[in-house]
Amino acid sequence: MTDLVTVEDYRRKSRRVLPAVLYDHLEGGAGDESLLARNRDSLTAVRLRPRYLRDVSVRDQRTTLFGRQHSAPLAIAPTGLNGAIRPGGDVFLARAAARAGIPFVLSTPAQNTIEEVSREADGDLWFQLYVVERGLAEELVARALAAGYSTLVLTVDVPVNGLRHRDRRNGFGLPLRMTPRILLDGARHPGWSTRFLRSGMPELANLTASAATGTDAAHALLRRQLDASFTWRDLAWLRRLWPHDLLVKGVLHPDDAARAVDCGADGIIVSNHGGRQLGEGPSTMEVLPGVLAKVDSPVLVDSGFRTGADIVKAVCLGASAVLIGRAALYGLAAGGEAGVDAVLDILRTEIDTTMSLIGATRIADLDRTYVQLPASWH
């Protein structure tokens, strides 16, 4: 019997196995971190409205997204510095997603290269782009295209880095500074320390492998000092570079969603960066209905999702899929590749159970009749 039966169980274990500096980086948010709570509170505030005496003996949570079928309305979100949590973390996440039949989004600041992940995982691979320098961005896009990635995800909510006070207090960054405090904390977490010593210091592999970058770009990416001059005009430039599906991630305003589609985006990801950028911003569930009312293209959502019921609620509102970030990383920290498998199994089981309990047999059946929104959202 295991005591790891929910995503929350994996979160608690990840806190035990990771040094504080890494757990704080994983768990922390921007500013006073109140947006972390708002993301969760808004999901709790949406109530499910079950319909009974229906035949729910067979359920099917398969969903079609951009012409490709997936096992669930779920994807693994782009997250950086996963190799500091587990060496090979990006490959582990990608392989787990492939086995689960869902997309994996590789982040620009990954510790495994675009090409390495493509060789090691045969699932639906998406690439998330941070624009640090235009020449570097063009090269990364070309590499993702050559490696067979199906979808490009442009993150737009990082013109500057959010005020992440935990990271600032801990002096977090790469390379990790081996202060006496970190060395002592590492000694208290021997499993992590052993893996760290065997694998060496994680690097920003996509920049190391790039011919168009140097140490300045790497340092800028670590500090999230991206190209703050990137505008709608540049989105049109990126659209010309990428011939496949293009998503814009970090949208919180309906008018921005509409403009992104007008500039050629194939879909929108409603995201507040997991509460890690503008700490005073809205929760994604609060703004999701307004974005959906403004665009006809697929709309995905992330930030704060921890259960299958959370995912069902978002789909009932009209989201095409939900991206999970921290939830997958809790599994990675607690159990490596097998831990990610377990977290994905938990979420898919919870989706299936929730659908049965509300009287829905297919993802396509889920709509607003199954949810009750807080009166304050109207």
Outline the low-pLDDT stretches.
none
CATH class value:
Alpha Beta
Strand content: 5-15%
Helix content: 40-55%
Structural class by helix and strand composition: alpha/beta
CATH names the topology as TIM Barrel
Give the SSE order as H and E letters.
Answer: HHHEEEEHHEHEHEHHHHHHEHEHEHEHE
Strand order in the sheet with the most strands: 4-11-10-9-8-7-6-5
Question: Care to give the gist of this entry?
Answer:
This protein is of the alpha/beta class and about 375 residues long.
Entry keywords:
alpha/beta; globular; oxidoreductase; TIM Barrel; two-stranded antiparallel sheet; 17 helices; FMN; FMN-dep_DH; FMN_HAD; eight-stranded parallel β-sheet; 378 residues; 12 strands
Structure description:
This protein is α/β, with parallel strands linked by helices and 378 residues long. It has a single domain (7-377), classed as Aldolase class I (TIM Barrel). The chain has 17 helices and twelve strands. It has helices at 7-17, 20-27, 34-45, 82-85, 89-100, 114-120, 134-146, 165-170, 180-187, 190-199, 205-208, 215-222, 232-241, 254-262, 284-294, 308-317, 326-358, and strands at residues 47-48, 63-65, 68-70, 74-76, 104-106, 125-129, 151-155, 245-251, 267-270, 299-301, 321-324, 371-372. Strands 4-11-10-9-8-7-6-5 form an eight-stranded parallel beta sheet. Strands 1-12 form a two-stranded antiparallel sheet. A two-stranded antiparallel ribbon has the order 2-3. A hairpin with a 2-residue loop joins strand 2 and strand 3. The relative contact order is 0.20.
